[in-house]
């Protein structure tokens, strides 16, 4: 048998072992490489097709129960491709060395653990849910493509007694080397409009105009973080984030 045939057999054997790798190995790797932020519980199946009772972020459940499927053939193109689904919705993704592409079909995630990742946003103690809706939206260092819509559902804050501040919509569109945000209000006692910009590796900034249509006094502890109100009663928030 020629050397190249032996080499091919060895590669085929290693590839078959990779296909049968149990899902249980994912949990410790996920925790280790996320600096203990992400945890997976009760993983079953294989690395390529499996399920878990939950995926947690910072100790709070992010998704669960969750199923995933990865394409081993994508590795031949130096890509990690797959899809994930749960009772919260579903999404598919493709990750390569220079691009991340996401398609989400109304994937709903809790807002609080996501906001807690950034100090400048954590001070608002926001809660509620965020719904992702996108089709072939890509992040890339040299510029992305597609569009991503985030809906903030029943947005609230631990700083105020108002159960729900409202429902809001954020549209994210790629520019040449950055991403643009536009914010709008769907409904609620606090009307929010504004826009912002985020550049990979450099962070971003967002500018919002906050107009309390009602319950202005109850919302004051949250609105005061934006400073003193203008003469018309509106608040203007300028904040940066990583």
Question: Nutshell version of this structure?
Answer:
With 242 residues, this protein is of the alpha+beta class. It has helices at 3-19, 26-33, 112-115, 119-122, 216-223, and strands spanning 38-41, 44-45, 49-52, 54-57, 60-63, 66-71, 80-86, 89-95, 99-110, 126-140, 148-157, 166-174, 179-187, 190-199, 203-212, 235-241.
Q: Which keywords apply here?
A:
13-stranded antiparallel β-sheet, 242 residues, three-stranded antiparallel β-sheet, alpha+beta, single chain, 5 helices, 17% helix
Structure, explained:
It is built from 5 helices and 16 strands. The model has no long low-confidence stretch (mean pLDDT 87). The protein folds into 2 domains: 1-87, no CATH class; 98-242, no CATH class. The longest helix is centred in the first third of the chain and has 17 residues, at 3-19. The strands form 2 sheets. Strands 2-3-6-7-8-9-10-11-12-13-14-15-16 form a 13-stranded antiparallel β-sheet. A 3-stranded antiparallel β-sheet has the order 1-4-5. The protein is α+β, with helices and mostly antiparallel strands and 242 residues long. Helix content is 17%, strand content 50%.
Q: What is the percent of helical residues?
A: 10-25%
Low-confidence spans: pLDDT under 50, at least 5 residues?
A: none
Number of domains: 2
Structural class from helices and strands?
Answer: alpha+beta
By DSSP, the count of extended strands is 16
Average pLDDT over all residues:
87
- What is the count of DSSP helices, taking H or I runs of 4+ residues? 5
Q: SSE string, helix = H, strand = E?
A: HHEEEEEEEEEHHEEEEEEHE
What is the 3D shape? globular
Main beta-sheet strand count, sense and barrel state: 13 strands, antiparallel
């Amino acid at each position: 048998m020629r050397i190249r045939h032996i080499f091919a057999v060895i590669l085929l054997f290693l590839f078959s072992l990779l296909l049968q790798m149990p899902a249980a190995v994912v949990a410790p790797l996920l925790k280790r490489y996320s600096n203990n932020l992400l945890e997976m519980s009760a993983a079953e199946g294989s690395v390529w097709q499996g399920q878990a009772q939950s995926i947690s972020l910072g100790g709070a459940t992010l998704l669960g129960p969750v199923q995933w499927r990865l394409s081993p053939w994508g590795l031949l193109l130096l890509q990690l491709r797959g899809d994930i689904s749960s009772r919260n919705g579903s999404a598919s993704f493709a990750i390569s060395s220079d691009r991340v592409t996401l398609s989400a079909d109304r994937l709903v995630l809790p807002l609080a653990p996501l906001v807690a990742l950034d100090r400048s946003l954590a001070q608002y103690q926001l809660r509620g849910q965020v719904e992702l809706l996108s089709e072939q939206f890509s992040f890339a260092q040299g510029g992305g493509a597609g569009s991503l819509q985030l809906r903030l559902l029943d947005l609230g804050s631990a700083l105020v007694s108002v159960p729900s501040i409202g429902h809001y919509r954020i549209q994210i569109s790629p520019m040449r080397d950055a991403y643009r945000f536009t914010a709008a209000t769907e409904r609620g006692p606090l009307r929010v409009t504004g826009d912002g910009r985020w550049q990979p590796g450099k962070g971003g900034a967002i500018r919002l105009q906050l107009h309390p249509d009602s319950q202005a006094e109850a919302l004051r502890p949250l609105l005061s973080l934006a400073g003193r109100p203008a003469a018309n009663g509106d608040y203007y928030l300028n904040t940066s984030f990583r």
